[in-house]
Amino acid sequence: MTTKNWLLVLVAIGLATGYAVFFTDWFQPQTVRIFHTNRSPRGRTVQRPGQSSLLFDLNRQLKLTEIKVVPLAAYQTNQNILPLWHLVSDSNSVPVKDFFYGQFIRGLKPAVPGTRAQTLTNNVTYRLLVSAGKLKGEHDFELK
């Protein structure tokens, strides 16, 4: 090969590397993006008085290994605070893309047996912590 051919090969490799680094997410740490909305859980269950209508959406379907909701102010000072809702995977959870606060999710069980999700208070900021294996995500939300 001539010098010109080697130079063209090196330029092509450089362009491919630049594209992979700047225009793809191959080298970015993967995170879970979480959004929340207030919705009625019609179609899934019959709404009972006091049942939450807070829906959390994930950016893709994931087999969750842990879900935890804590008050943000207390969590920032003590990360070992007792959560208001805490589910952990016992073996193999079902892939989910969205879930309601306090909902039973197959494959997840309360971290402390027999506990249920506590009622959330208006105008208090909470943090949702979600893990799916090595992927982790957190989302701050507030009820209005």
Q: Can you give keywords for this protein?
A:
three-stranded antiparallel beta sheet, alpha+beta, 144 residues, 2 helices
Structural commentary:
With 144 residues, this protein is an alpha+beta fold. The chain is 19% helix and 34% strand. The protein is built from 2 helices and 8 strands, in the order H-E-E-E-H-E-E-E-E-E. It has helices at 3-23, 72-77; strands at residues 34-38, 54-62, 66-71, 85-89, 96-100, 108-110, 125-132, 135-142. The longest helix has 21 residues, at 3-23. It is elongated.
Say how many strands there are.
8
* End-to-end Cα distance: 69 Å
Q: Output the number of helix runs.
A: 2
Helix content: 10-25%
Class by SSE composition: alpha+beta
